Amino acid sequence: MGTVNKTDPQTEESVAGGDDVGLPFGASQVWRALVGALGQGRVAARTGARLGGELAKITVGRSSVAPAKGDRRFADPAWQTNPVFHRIVQTYLASTGALGEVVDEWAGKGDNPARGHQAKFAASILTSAVAPTNFLASNPAALKEAFDTAGMSLARGIGHYVSDVRHNGGMPSMIEPGAFAVGTDLALTPGAVIARDEVAEVLQYRPSTDTVHERPVLVVPPPIGRFYFLDLRPGRSFVEHAVSRGLQTFMLSWRNPQQEQADWNLDTYAARVSRAIDEVREVTGSDDVNVIGFCAGGLITTLLLNHLAAEGDSRVHSMSYAVTMLDFGQSEQLSTYNAKALLAFAKFRSQRKGLISARDMGAAFTWMRPDELVFNYVVNNYLMGRKPPPFDILAWNADGTNLPGALHGQFLDIFGGNLLATPGALTVLGTPIDLSRIEVPTFVSGAIADHLTAWKGCYRTTQLLGGDDSTFVLSYSGHIASLVNPPGNPKAHYWTGKRPGPDPQAWFDEASRREGSWWEAWADWVSKRSGPRVRADEDLGSSLHPVLDVAPGRYVRDQI
How many CB atoms lie within 10 A of CB 475? Predict the structure, then answer.
């Protein structure tokens, strides 16, 4: 069983003593940080005086305040042509700008970075929530829609709101239920399930080339969510791209745990990756495999690699990481949640409930981007009375899974104590963690606008692991957009550079920008480490691991 050897004590008093109970992701703690920022007398007074002057200019029509270029909230011409709406948006922008100045100054000089990030987080939610576009009376587009439809848009909006209260926890739906079906619209790359136990299935994908590389690739997705974001649709599938490059590709498909699996932990998941490696080796006849881990899948695989290194086990030839963070010591975005009382409460709730739902896990991260992921849908669904547009990645996002309480608690320990970056602080599969002993070749990727796993945090993996064969590639865009990143997108690009050194900014300053997707860079890298090409076998599975089902299998559809 995975155990924590060294961590800050989490007292029961810190769990029960706060007023975060019943609030999402420690909301009261975050809002208290904002109140602290606004309590700066001199700063608030100075900023308030400037704001008063700007409001006076707005009143007489002399202000130059304008929405940022590309702010789609204020795309309606009425925001510029109608004097009332023009002054409303200017007042909003001036006021929220002043709030941002106060918070930034407080966060910049404070001695508690986490509190500063919490204040900024609260300010971002507040400024998004009070935008005039979120209210019928101050949204010209919504008023026009109500007039043009004789009020039917408002009636539909009320229906959408009632439905979301009943079925979506009061959050606006990002996707219409049933818009996409797994196996019919999504996860269509041909393949088969060749192994299954209570924890996961292993899928083997059918080759699409006459020859394939001898050494196979095992893909380890995160246990949070379902694997098919990597096999979304034809033309938007990482799996499809890997197969097209002649890579023998296998996928772990985690089971969606229920209450009886509440005790599944890091040992459970790392051991399953180990068994999957053996299953892939048996089917292909290869002595070893290449592995790529996505997000938390990379974290779990790293714990296995640590154990294999200690045992002198060479079944993994190379390891690739896609937006995986192992060092949480410098994560600005995630430090919003890094407070002892908050983490202690979250761990207490995991232990009490035994299971953490996708909704519980997703809410906090959704609020990291309130304009795009919350209020955009408030306006579309409720004020405009429209259905959310069909979008495959949002269908995947809404198709969440549970997380065992034991595993969730260990993730919180890792995050709160930065245990992976501290040798000996955590034991998994009976082996204390020391990432420097991992010496397999590594390919590490990050995304420049990632709001969950900041790219410099991902870069740190190149410094934590041992060995001298390490490559870092930086993709454009954010977390999910970097993962669903097919070649052919004219906007797609990435940066490559020399062997990573200690300073990520120095690496970036000397890096070269390349057009295309990091998928291509990864496929080039792993192909060089996949051995010679051999004739592709038309039959999937083996006598020991015969075909059990066609892809995408049962577990991805909760058919236990």
Answer: 26
Examine the domain organization and report whether 388 and 409 are in the same domain: no
The helix/strand/coil state of 392 is helix
- From the candidates 93, 193, 295, 355, give the one annotated as an active-site residue: 295
Give me the helices (H) in 421-540, please. Answer: 455-459, 461-464, 479-483, 504-510, 518-527
Residue matched to tokens 């034809």? 234
Query: pTM (2 decimals)?
Result: 0.83
46 occurs within a structural domain: yes
Q: Is 458 a catalytic site residue?
A: no
Q: State the CATH number of the domain containing residue 440.
A: 3.40.50.1820
124 and 24 housed in the same domain: yes
Look up tokens 């990520």; give the residue. 504
Residue-level pLDDT, tens digit, the chain, 560 residues = 455 543 332 322 222 233 332 334 455 555 666 666 566 667 778 888 999 999 999 999 999 999 998 899 999 999 999 999 999 999 999 999 988 888 877 766 656 666 777 777 788 888 999 999 999 999 999 999 999 999 999 999 999 999 999 988 888 998 888 889 999 999 999 999 999 999 999 999 999 999 999 999 999 999 988 999 999 999 999 999 999 999 999 999 999 999 999 999 999 999 999 999 999 999 999 999 999 999 999 999 999 999 999 999 999 999 999 999 999 886 554 544 455 544 554 555 666 677 887 666 666 667 778 888 899 999 999 999 999 988 898 888 888 899 998 999 899 899 888 999 999 999 999 999 999 999 999 999 999 998 788 999 999 999 999 999 999 999 998 888 889 999 998 889 999 999 999 999 999 999 999 999 999 999 999 999 999 999 999 999 999 999 999 999 999 999 77
- Contact present, 281 and 315 (Cβ < 8 Å): yes
Sign of the C-alpha dihedral computed for residues 458, 413, 400 and 260 taken in this order = positive
Domain count, the chain: 3
Whether 162 and 286 share a structural domain: no
Q: Is 184 a domain residue?
A: no
> Per the domain annotation, does 185 fall within a domain?
no
How far is the CA of 538 from the CAs of 244, 371, 541, in angstroms? 15, 49, 10
Asked if residues 330 and 312 have their Cβ atoms less than 8 Å apart, the reply is no
Which is nearest to 260 in space by CA: 162, 355, 145, 172? Answer: 355
**Measured distance CA(327)–CA(307) in Å, rounded:** 18
Q: Is 144 exposed, middle or buried (0-12, 13-18, 19+ CB in 10 A)?
A: middle
Domain-located, residue 479:
yes
Domain that holds residue 70: 20-141
Backbone phi, psi, residue 530, to 5°: -115, 10
